[in-house]
Every structure is written in structure tokens, then in C-alpha cells.
Design goal:
mainly beta, Immunoglobulin-like, five-stranded antiparallel beta sheet, five-stranded mixed beta sheet, 53 strands, elongated
């Protein structure tokens, strides 16, 4: 007990305080303010809740008066049977869900087990304390009125006398549609020059057709090195290229739910929701660097060189010596960091300084994929039957015993990824780990909206192909052409095959001084150049060929850049 002055400041030392019960036969209070719902023994230790005949004292409310310095305050004390159970229920005809800022009344009943039967004592226990599991999804006042706030499902409970009731579920309506567009207009495409700002906006409608405002959406750009987007929808355009923007409502940040509340009554609570795509074209020419490497030389010895090629000059730069022979190289989407699989572990490469900044010696295998936010890297060691998921921020890795994984891809908001091994498909979540799906596939790619993942494999789609089976396909960012940039085997290549999307025509770009097998290739972000590596063929090569896709007479092999190793890995830095 504290005594305060008119300003709310506690008075010290505490003045003398006396306590008086309006019915000492039902409630007694010690001089220290300890309350007994019954009668204390002579030592004020044992609280006796039965009368002299052994009957429980009746339920009632008794006022206790506190007096000090001529001032009084009255506190009601509720005397009732032991609370054994509290049930919470919603309206008798509940809606499918509650739209944002709409309300619904929940009620609670309090029961005491007496002689083996539940007895309703709600009227005797006094006010209940109400709460929700997530105030982000819904709030509740002390009368049991809940207000829907943001999409998702949560629990609502009532408590009294140190007993919490069985939770009920309240569903704040999930999004049915997320309409992404340019701010102020309904356009879903734009074309601007490099350096021009744009703003996107999203209109969210729930499953009852009512609007949702201020939803915690995630905005994503498929090619952030061409156009990046903030959480407020502000777009910057650092480089030329084409990108896809999406807005998503993904748990737990948006549309959160847990356990049996996920998709409660088919409302979609706890499920990820995605918008339509907005396509942004950024015009201009962007200089970048092409990195070329490989594990071996024409004489069969190991290679440890990584060569940068500046797209402005198209000549080989100073070779960078690696600590091991590389087997793969993958950039993050911004082009700020690359990861190389090698004989000594995963190498982390900074293109700004053209140097390896760290080596994860315990992470072996081939780098398959970097998440869209750049924080997760998937590496597969098929010889050891292991998959590593490296966390850039924490500089740690999760290890999974998964055999034969050769492909991986993340959805646009990085909430999950699929790994494929030919005989199996695995779903990875940063929060829940690995789940094996009842599918078989050897390839996977998410659409930019992340609502669909395409899986490839003999059990899903069978194709008849020539002996030179394509091992790699590069698609221009302007969706004009697809190029076959590698073969898994067969005869030396004399050109680079392509498919023209507009009219369905096919052809091949003739190579100058064609070498042996076509290894790999990559397109610049502005879709102006294609770089492909070919192995040596006798005294010819090995070369990296630069195909000029903007040449007046059609695509042409404009530059042949000689290297000392088999250029099995040709990677264009996103920029």
C-alpha cells in the first residue's frame, strides 16, 4: 500500500493506514493489508473459507475501506468459489473473418467444479482481464470487444483469479488481391532512363472485398542492380536493364498465424500472398565486369586464376590468383559480392577490390544460388551428400544431409527455397529448415511473383533433344532472345544457337575462330552483349567471345579474348 499527495508523489514515511471490511464474516484484512476471502485464524496465517458448520462461505462482493489521514478509498473484493475453467466464445453467427477496424464481441464464462459438476460463477468473479496473442492482428478491450488491425489469425483469452481461459481464434481478414502499380496511376509498366526515380503503390483488398491499409508489405525487385525498391515503394534506377517488381504479404511480418490457426477455416490466414508484376525498363548503357575462370587448363593441370574483363574495353585484365581451383561462381543480385566454390572451400569475393575477402574452408561443393536479399547462399557437395546454407550476416552455415542436389532457387521475398536432386525436391525455410516433398525434379525456378515455382525433370516434362543437350540458357533482359550458352557434351561449337521470342525463329551466331566445346556464358544487364567461353581446339583458343547484340547487321562475334585456361565459368557482374 502506498499513500500519495495530490501530485501523485508518494508520501514518506508512509502514514498510518487502517483497513476495514464491510463484512468481516466473509472478508477479513490484516493490519498489513493482507486480504482473506473468509476468516483468518488468531495468528492471521490460515485463511478459513468455511463457516463453523463446515459449509463454504457464500459468493459475495465485500467492500474494503482504506483510511489514512482522514482520507478514505474503497476497494471491492470478490469472494467466489475456486475458478477451474474459463470458456471464451465469439458471436453466435460469426463472420468468416473480421475486416480491418471492424469489431466483434467475444464473451467469457467462468466455471467452478462443485461436487464434480461445473457451476457458472461468472456473475460473482468481478471484471475479467482480456488479451490477444498478437496486438498486431487484433486488439481487445476489457469488455471483450475485439478490433481487427492487420491480416492474420490470433487468439483471444480472458483471465481472472490467476486462471486463463481456453483461447478462441479471431481472424483479421487476409488479402485476396494486392494490386501493384505506379503511384497516382494504374500503369503496371514503365520505361525510364538510368537515374530516374519512380514510386510504386499497392492497393490491398481483403477476402470480403474491403480495403486493407498500411499492411506490412514486402517490396521486391528481381534485378535490383537495374532498379531497386524501398519498403515505402520508392524506386531508384542505378543501371540499365529490365526488372520485375512485386509486393508480398508474407508471414510472420504480414498475415501472421501459427499452428492450427494457419488457413483457419479456409480464410488464408498465415499464407503468403503476392501481387501482380510491375515491369520496369531502365534504358542506357551500363559498364560492368565479366569474370572468367575454370578449374583446369588445356594441358589438364589445375587452374587458380580469375580474370576480369571490363565491358568497356573488352580486354583481359590482371589475373587474380585464387587459393584453390574454382568450380562455380555466383553473384548476389546487387553485384556487390560473389561466391566461388573451390577445392579449398567457399571463397567470398569483393568485386570492388577484386580480392577474396574470406574463405569458408568447411563449406565444400558447388555454389548453386544466392537469395534475392543476398543473405543466404546455397552450396551443394554431391560427393559428400551435403547441402550448406550460408548466412552472410551471421557468417555461419546450416548443414543438411541431402544427396545429389544440383539446383536451387529462392522465392522473391526469401521466405523459402526449393532444392532438387533429380530424384527428390526439398523445401527449405530459414525458420523451419528442410521438408521433403513428394516430387522428383532436377531443376527449379521461381517466377518473380514467387507464387509459382517451376520444376523440371523427366517425371514432369519429357523432351526429345539432339546429342548436344543444352546445359545452360541465357535469356536477354528485354525478352528478345534466348541463347544456348553451353553443352553437356558433343562436338565443338561453331556458333551460339538462339531462339527469337517474337516470331519463334531460330538461328546461330557464327563465332570467329571457333574453338571446341561451348562452356558457359552470360548476358550483360543492358542486353547489349553476350559473353561465352569456348575450349581450345588444337591451336585455336581457349577464348571468351563477346557477342555484340546491337550490331547493325545482327548479332556478331565482335571480340575474341584469349585466356590460358578452359573458361568453364563466365559470369557477368550485375551492374
Amino acid at each position: 500500500m502506498s499513500v500519495a499527495n495530490a501530485s501523485g508523489v508518494a508520501i514518506t514515511p508512509t502514514p498510518t493506514v487502517t483497513y476495514t471490511s464491510a463484512d468481516p464474516s466473509a472478508v477479513t484484512v490484516t493490519s498489513a493489508g493482507l486480504v482473506c476471502a473468509g476468516v483468518f485464524d488468531s495468528n492471521s496465517i490460515v485463511c478459513q473459507t468455511k463457516d463453523s458448520s463446515g459449509n463454504l462461505l457464500p459468493d459475495k462482493t465485500v467492500n474494503v475501506t482504506v483510511t489514512s489521514g482522514g482520507l478514505t478509498a474503497t476497494v471491492p473484493v470478490y469472494v467466489h468459489s475456486h475458478v477451474d475453467n474459463i470458456t471464451v466464445s465469439g458471436p453466435s453467427n460469426p463472420p468468416v473473418c473480421v475486416s480491418q477496424n471492424q469489431t466483434e464481441l467475444f464473451t467469457a464464462k467462468v466455471f467452478s467444479n462443485q461436487q464434480g459438476k461445473p457451476v457458472d460463477i461468472t456473475a460473482n468473479v468481478g471484471p475479467l482481464t482480456w488479451s490477444t496473442g498478437s496486438a498486431t492482428v487484433a486488439t481487445v478491450d476489457q469488455n471483450g470487444v475485439i478490433t481487427s488491425r492487420q491480416p492474420g489469425a490470433t487468439t483471444v483469452v480472458a483471465a481472472v483469479a490467476n486462471t486463463t481461459g481456453t483461447p478462441a481464434v479471431v481472424v483479421a481478414c487476409s488479402p485476396r488481391t494486392i494490386s501493384l502499380h505506379l503511384a497516382g496511376v494504374t500503369d503496371t509498366t514503365f520505361s525510364v532512363a538510368t537515374g530516374t526515380a519512380q514510386t510504386l503503390a499497392a492497393d490491398v483488398t481483403d477476402i470480403l472485398g474491403r480495403p486493407i491499409t498500411n499492411a506490412s508489405l514486402t517490396f521486391s525487385s528481381y534485378v535490383p542492380s537495374a532498379a531497386a525498391i524501398t519498403s515505402a515503394g520508392a524506386v531508384t534506377t542505378p543501371g540499365a536493364g529490365v526488372t520485375t517488381f512485386v509486393a508480398s504479404c508474407v508471414p510472420p511480418g504480414c498475415n501472421q498465424a501459427s499452428g492450427p490457426n494457419i488457413n483457419f477455416n479456409g480464410t488464408g490466414a498465415g499464407l503468403a500472398m503476392y501481387s501482380n508484376a510491375v515491369i520496369g525498363t531502365v534504358t542506357g548503357t551500363t559498364a560492368t565486369t565479366i569474370y572468367v575462370t575454370g578449374s583446369d587448363k588445356p594441358d589438364g593441370t589445375a587452374n587458380t586464376s580469375l580474370i576480369p574483363i571490363d565491358s568497356s574495353a573488352n580486354t583481359a585484365g590482371t589475373a587474380i590468383t585464387l587459393s584453390g581451383s574454382p568450380n562455380s561462381m555466383v553473384f548476389d543480385r546487387t553485384g556487390s559480392t560473389a561466391y566461388l566454390g573451390s577445392s579449398v572451400g567457399m571463397l567470398i569475393f569483393d568485386p570492388g577490390t577484386n580480392a577474396v575477402t574470406a574463405t569458408a574452408s568447411g563449406i565444400t561443393g558447388v555454389v548453386l544460388k544466392v537469395s534475392n536479399d543476398g543473405n543466404k547462399v546455397v552450396i551443394s557437395d554431391t560427393s559428400a551428400g551435403k547441402v550448406f546454407v550460408f548466412d552472410k550476416a551471421a557468417q555461419t552455415a546450416q548443414t543438411f544431409d541431402l544427396a545429389g542436389v544440383t539446383a536451387a532457387d529462392f522465392d522473391s521475398d526469401n521466405s523459402k527455397a526449393y532444392f532438387t536432386s533429380g530424384s527428390a525436391v526439398y523445401e527449405y525455410s530459414p525458420s523451419t529448415g528442410i521438408k521433403t516433398l513428394s516430387l522428383a525434379a532436377d531443376g527449379v525456378a521461381f517466377t518473380p511473383q514467387a507464387a509459382v515455382a517451376y520444376l523440371g525433370g523427366s517425371s514432369i516434362l519429357g523432351l526429345t533433344v539432339c546429342n548436344d543437350t543444352p546445359a545452360s540458357i541465357a535469356v536477354a533482359s528485354d525478352d528478345s532472345n534466348a541463347f544456348l550458352t553451353a553443352y553437356s557434351g558433343g562436338s565443338p561449337a561453331t556458333g551460339v544457337p538462339f531462339y527469337h521470342f517474337a516470331d519463334g525463329s531460330t538461328g546461330a551466331i557464327t563465332l570467329v575462330n571457333p574453338g571446341g566445346v561451348l562452356f558457359s556464358g552470360g548476358l550483360t544487364q543492358d542486353a547489349h552483349s553476350l559473353y561465352v567461353g569456348t575450349e581450345a581446339n588444337g591451336s585455336i583458343g581457349p577464348f571468351v567471345h563477346r557477342i555484340d547484340l546491337t550490331a547493325a547487321g545482327g548479332p556478331a562475334d565482335a571480340n575474341q579474348i584469349s585466356v590460358s585456361f578452359n573458361p568453364r565459368i563466365v559470369v557477368v557482374r550485375p551492374k
